Amino acid sequence: MRSISISRGKGFSRRSTREFTQFLFIAKGSAAEVQSQLYVAFDQGYISQEKFDQLYSKSDEVARLISGFIQYLLAKTKTQATQQTQQTQETQQSK
User: What's the Cα-to-Cα distance from 59 to each of 15, 30, 31, 53, 78, rounded to whole Å?
Assistant: First the structure.
């Protein structure tokens, strides 16, 4: 889960929503890596079924939250681009 936080932090320091979104995708991939490692830990007997279920559920929740945030940012970016296009067209038509 540490790499998820690090990726999100790196993305937050970027100046554009596009770059931030890219790092959120990386963070989501890190959540999938955590889930993969949980399977290994369970299969090797390092964690119980109960612990596996608990941690897997948390990592799944994190991945879903990241996905929701990505979708929000992409929709916001699309809306802003549409508004800018409309403003440009209105400006050109009024000349």
Answer: 28, 10, 6, 10, 29
35 φ/ψ angles, rounded to the nearest 5 degrees: -60, -40
Q: What is the pTM of this model?
A: 0.68
User: How far is C-alpha 14 from the chain's CA centre?
Assistant: 15
Whats the size of the chain, residue-wise?
95
Extended strands (E) in 2-60: none
Which domains can be identified in the chain, with CATH numbers? 2-86 (1.20.1440.60)
CA dihedral 71, 73, 78, 84 (to 10 degrees): 170
Average pLDDT for 36-42: 97
Nearest Cα neighbor of 63 from 87, 21, 35 is 35
